[in-house]
Amino acid sequence: MANEARVFAEDPANCHVVQYQVAASVAVPKGTLLIANGDRVGVAHAAAARRAPLGYTTSNKATTDPDYASATNLGVQVTGVVEAVADGTILTGQIVFAGNTTANRVQAAYNGMLSIYETAQLVLGRALENAADGETVKVMLTIGTAG
User: What is the DSSP letter of 77?
Assistant: First the structure.
Protein backbone atom coordinates (compact mmCIF):
# COMPACT_ATOMS: atom_id res chain seq x y z
CA MET A 1 0.00 0.00 0.00
CA ALA A 2 1.07 3.60 -0.44
CA ASN A 3 0.17 6.95 1.12
CA GLU A 4 0.56 5.75 4.71
CA ALA A 5 -0.08 8.40 7.34
CA ARG A 6 2.38 9.29 10.08
CA VAL A 7 0.62 8.32 13.29
CA PHE A 8 1.15 10.11 16.62
CA ALA A 9 2.11 13.28 14.69
CA GLU A 10 1.60 15.50 17.75
CA ASP A 11 1.48 14.80 21.48
CA PRO A 12 1.29 10.98 21.47
CA ALA A 13 0.37 10.95 25.17
CA ASN A 14 -3.07 12.33 24.22
CA CYS A 15 -3.81 9.75 21.51
CA HIS A 16 -6.19 6.88 22.05
CA VAL A 17 -5.45 3.48 20.50
CA VAL A 18 -7.93 0.60 20.27
CA GLN A 19 -7.63 -2.93 18.90
CA TYR A 20 -9.24 -4.05 15.65
CA GLN A 21 -8.96 -7.39 13.95
CA VAL A 22 -7.51 -7.83 10.45
CA ALA A 23 -7.06 -10.96 8.35
CA ALA A 24 -3.84 -12.84 9.12
CA SER A 25 -3.15 -13.36 5.40
CA VAL A 26 -2.98 -9.63 4.64
CA ALA A 27 0.02 -7.31 5.06
CA VAL A 28 -0.90 -4.03 6.76
CA PRO A 29 1.75 -1.28 6.92
CA LYS A 30 1.89 1.16 9.84
CA GLY A 31 -0.20 4.23 9.04
CA THR A 32 -2.81 2.40 6.98
CA LEU A 33 -6.34 3.78 7.22
CA LEU A 34 -8.68 0.98 8.28
CA ILE A 35 -12.37 0.99 7.40
CA ALA A 36 -15.14 -1.08 8.98
CA ASN A 37 -15.65 -4.62 7.70
CA GLY A 38 -17.67 -6.31 10.43
CA ASP A 39 -17.86 -6.53 14.21
CA ARG A 40 -14.57 -5.04 15.44
CA VAL A 41 -12.97 -5.97 12.09
CA GLY A 42 -11.15 -3.63 9.72
CA VAL A 43 -9.70 -3.72 6.21
CA ALA A 44 -7.36 -1.32 4.46
CA HIS A 45 -9.15 1.61 2.86
CA ALA A 46 -9.65 1.36 -0.91
CA ALA A 47 -10.65 4.15 -3.28
CA ALA A 48 -14.41 4.82 -3.37
CA ALA A 49 -15.05 2.56 -0.35
CA ARG A 50 -17.93 4.20 1.51
CA ARG A 51 -17.52 2.53 4.89
CA ALA A 52 -16.96 4.08 8.29
CA PRO A 53 -13.29 4.85 9.01
CA LEU A 54 -11.84 3.18 12.10
CA GLY A 55 -8.49 5.00 12.36
CA TYR A 56 -4.84 4.44 11.45
CA THR A 57 -2.75 1.36 12.26
CA THR A 58 0.05 1.98 14.75
CA SER A 59 2.30 -0.93 13.75
CA ASN A 60 3.26 -3.07 10.75
CA LYS A 61 1.77 -6.51 10.19
CA ALA A 62 3.43 -9.05 7.89
CA THR A 63 1.51 -11.10 5.33
CA THR A 64 1.68 -14.22 7.46
CA ASP A 65 1.58 -14.06 11.20
CA PRO A 66 2.61 -17.41 12.74
CA ASP A 67 0.95 -16.56 16.06
CA TYR A 68 -2.57 -16.41 14.61
CA ALA A 69 -4.23 -18.84 12.21
CA SER A 70 -6.96 -16.62 10.77
CA ALA A 71 -6.87 -13.12 12.27
CA THR A 72 -4.66 -10.66 14.09
CA ASN A 73 -5.43 -7.70 16.34
CA LEU A 74 -3.74 -4.40 15.51
CA GLY A 75 -3.57 -1.15 17.43
CA VAL A 76 -5.44 1.64 15.67
CA GLN A 77 -5.09 5.35 16.50
CA VAL A 78 -8.60 6.82 16.86
CA THR A 79 -7.90 10.25 18.41
CA GLY A 80 -5.10 12.77 18.22
CA VAL A 81 -3.24 14.09 15.18
CA VAL A 82 -1.99 12.19 12.14
CA GLU A 83 -0.17 13.41 9.03
CA ALA A 84 -2.18 12.02 6.13
CA VAL A 85 -1.81 12.46 2.36
CA ALA A 86 -4.32 14.80 0.69
CA ASP A 87 -6.59 13.61 -2.11
CA GLY A 88 -7.23 17.02 -3.68
CA THR A 89 -6.94 20.47 -2.10
CA ILE A 90 -7.70 20.74 1.61
CA LEU A 91 -8.00 23.98 3.60
CA THR A 92 -7.46 24.58 7.30
CA GLY A 93 -10.60 23.78 9.30
CA GLN A 94 -12.29 21.66 6.65
CA ILE A 95 -13.86 18.35 7.62
CA VAL A 96 -12.09 15.45 5.93
CA PHE A 97 -13.15 11.98 4.84
CA ALA A 98 -11.32 8.95 3.51
CA GLY A 99 -10.32 9.70 -0.09
CA ASN A 100 -12.79 8.79 -2.81
CA THR A 101 -10.31 8.52 -5.69
CA THR A 102 -7.10 7.26 -4.06
CA ALA A 103 -6.65 4.56 -1.41
CA ASN A 104 -5.29 5.63 1.98
CA ARG A 105 -5.67 9.37 1.32
CA VAL A 106 -8.02 12.00 2.79
CA GLN A 107 -10.24 14.53 1.03
CA ALA A 108 -12.17 17.60 2.10
CA ALA A 109 -15.94 17.54 2.51
CA TYR A 110 -17.78 19.44 -0.19
CA ASN A 111 -20.74 21.76 0.30
CA GLY A 112 -23.88 19.96 1.41
CA MET A 113 -22.08 16.67 2.04
CA LEU A 114 -22.88 16.60 5.75
CA SER A 115 -26.57 17.25 5.11
CA ILE A 116 -26.77 13.62 4.02
CA TYR A 117 -27.25 11.48 7.15
CA GLU A 118 -25.35 8.49 5.78
CA THR A 119 -22.30 10.67 5.23
CA ALA A 120 -21.87 11.71 8.88
CA GLN A 121 -20.49 8.28 9.85
CA LEU A 122 -17.75 8.71 7.22
CA VAL A 123 -16.13 11.74 8.90
CA LEU A 124 -12.47 11.12 9.66
CA GLY A 125 -11.49 14.45 11.22
CA ARG A 126 -10.68 18.11 10.68
CA ALA A 127 -7.75 19.58 8.76
CA LEU A 128 -5.32 21.58 10.89
CA GLU A 129 -3.52 23.09 7.88
CA ASN A 130 -3.76 23.60 4.13
CA ALA A 131 -2.53 20.99 1.65
CA ALA A 132 -2.50 20.51 -2.10
CA ASP A 133 -3.16 17.17 -3.78
CA GLY A 134 -0.47 14.66 -2.78
CA GLU A 135 0.92 16.77 0.07
CA THR A 136 0.78 15.74 3.72
CA VAL A 137 -1.81 17.40 5.92
CA LYS A 138 -2.20 17.28 9.69
CA VAL A 139 -5.62 15.97 10.64
CA MET A 140 -7.22 16.00 14.09
CA LEU A 141 -9.09 12.69 14.25
CA THR A 142 -12.77 13.07 15.20
CA ILE A 143 -13.98 9.80 13.73
CA GLY A 144 -17.70 9.69 12.99
CA THR A 145 -18.42 13.26 14.11
CA ALA A 146 -18.14 16.69 12.55
CA GLY A 147 -16.18 17.78 15.69
Answer: E
